[in-house]
Amino acid sequence: VQLQASGGGLVQPGGSLRLSCAASRSIFSIIAVGWYRQAPGKQRELVATITSDGSTNYVDSVKGRFTISRDNAKNTVYLQMNSLKPEDTAVYYCIPVILRTPVGSWGQGTQVTVSS
Asked: Is the pLDDT of residue 27 over 70?
């Protein structure tokens, strides 16, 4: 299943963005999806995951600020990001996951820049 992330942009600290992750196939509803991010010079890190039944998990640094959700009717997973900080600046990717391990190929990602 190929996933495509979108919705990034430039936002001021404290602002919000909603990222979208669209799937090309209807089997999307039975897969778990993870949002990852990679900042310049850093390793890619797992930010949040959502299972097929809607169970979620977050890295500590985004708990209480980010919310992952899914709309299976639209084959889309969202990442609502609030109270953004400069350290959230990164390219964000979505990908299917199994036991929080990415599977398949990485898409292009979407750039999120938090700066005043």
From this structure: no
